[in-house]
Each structure stands twice: as structure tokens, then as C-alpha cells.
Amino acid sequence: MITRFLxxxxxxxNPFSKRAKPARLFxxxxxxxxxxxxxxxxxxxxxxTSKEPATLDVKFKDGKEMxxxxxxxxxxxxxxxxxxxxxxxxxxxxxxxx
Length: 98
Fold this sequence. Notes:
alpha+beta; single chain; Glutaredoxin; 2 helices
């Protein structure tokens, strides 16, 4: 997963729910030095009895915000969505020569 273009990650999930697996896996894919490199990571753990859906909000360096409902998605779909915009940003960076 391409994470160098992410500036802000917000995850909200119930850690005891079976449907929270994509949220947990997404957090595990973020490199350990991401906070040092300037990424803001916010996690909110919901109580065990909560019926709120798991959500992921991602903000990119170009200002685009992506809101994903993780209840309906698998981790591969989440990675595809995030990587799709990251590849566009990588192409732009490559073309401008930065």
C-alpha cells in the first residue's frame, strides 16, 4: 500500500466486531515511522455493545478526502481505493520532477 501521500487517517471501529477486520488490517499496514514523517493518525475504539459501523477517513497531500464505510468492504477493496488515488499523485509527482 502506498502511504507516502497520506496526511491524515481517522479510523473508528469496534475492536470486538467481526466486521472490524478491515480497520485493524489497514492500521497494521501503516508503517511504524508514519507519525514521524508527518501523518496524523487518529483511532477511536467503540464500546463492545456499539452498533455503529466501522469507518475510515483518509486525507491526501493534495487535499482530497476519502470516506469509506468498512462494514461493507474487504481489506483488498480498501487498499485498491487508497492506492488508486496514491498512484495518481505519484504520476503527477513523477511528471513534475519532484
